[in-house]
Fold this sequence. Notes:
Elements: E1 34-45, E2 48-58, E3 66-73, E4 76-84, E5 94-102, E6 109-120, E7 126-138, H1 143-146, H2 166-188
Antiparallel strand pairs: 1-2, 2-5, 3-4, 3-6, 6-7
Amino acid sequence: MPNPAKPIKQVTLDNLPTTPIKQNPKTNPANQKKINITQMETNTKIDELHLKISFKLEPSWRAFSKIKANLIFENTTINTTHINVLQGPLGTNELEYSWIMDTKGLSEGTYQLKIEMYEEWPSNEKLHQTNREITVKYIPQTRQARLIKIPFIKKVTGPNLAVISTQEKQIYTNIQKAIKKEQNSQRDT
Length: 189
């Protein structure tokens, strides 16, 4: 004998369901994709400016495949980089990327550096866009400025005093050995 069908209960304000309604994970703000630039640091070298950024992918690196990063110097885009997010067991949510800029001819001063990161879709739509700026006080470093400012001794002289370097000592030792060999060979003949 077949089971009798239960009547369908219509939801009204008097009999609201007690189980919570599940939200769509795409619209849930806790699960939305984000790129957070956590750190930007610069380092000045001879004719170079190093920029290193650290960023975090939320909720996970698995949600991203390619990220585009624009490096903007004084409101001019100087580099666009495509960052492939590593998938698999070696993937991680926190990543680092760095640029080395040639600063020959750049004068001393304060400059603006900006990083703009986003995920680009085939329709050229920029999704999950984020950016961060940093002000850099650039002071070109010369080779002379990097040298240790300690004098060194070129030569020591004095009465009956001679300083011999290790190379000179080796030459004298070789000469003495050659003289002894020659004296021994003359004695034998």
